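## retry 2 of 3
previous attempt timed out at serialization; input unchanged, resubmitting
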Amino acid sequence: MIGPFPADGSGTQSIVIEGVSDSGKQVFQGYVLRATAAPPGSIIWSQPTTTVNEDDIDLTYTLAHAGHWSNGSGGLSVTAGSETILFEERGKTSDGDAYVDVGAKVAAAANFFTSTGTVGDPDFETVLDGGIVDGFKIAAVIPELTLEGLTVGSLYQIQLFASDNRAGSETRTMKFGDGQASESYCATFFVDDSPYIIGTFTAAATTQTVTIVAVSDPANGGDYLNGYVLRYQPRGTLVSIR
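## retry succeeded, writing output
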């Protein structure tokens, strides 16, 4: 198993070894630790993981802001663990939002998410039910999410939610990238799996680009983003927190 992690400045990192099928038996045989020197602006991605409910919202670091695109639903407050997160509704097109911009023509839709298993917070389901998609089917244009108001040199974590459980989307695949010259992408995933992906990066500028890339169906708008949560490691003041 390989587990990338950003150092938090404490000088230590704990790893929990937990038995699942037999709590009295845990096996650990060795490890190799490597330092990764990702350049500022380059995003290190986690593996896509299926979203079940609001308990999947990662609470590492300090909340900066969160957003969604859900057809006029307004701000949605979601309680995850001990924290209540306000998902603010973002614009459907690049509209000069002070916190994020979507750099391509997009349209909001509904019913992107069908809950399986535990039914969670209805507001979080609303977050996942809406989304941005290249509704104008401009295959040559890759939509971009631009995070704004970042503090150069600070560490950030972006959690992205991408789901489309509508009929006909079962085979659509996509991925997220960091928009750099040597672009770093997360693993390609099926949107029908309703995954979340976590990316960590050090801000190289006051903005950070996240590309939203359709892999299997770019001509038909197969690129999705339902919502996001941006968090940061407190090393200074993040000017865009509200």
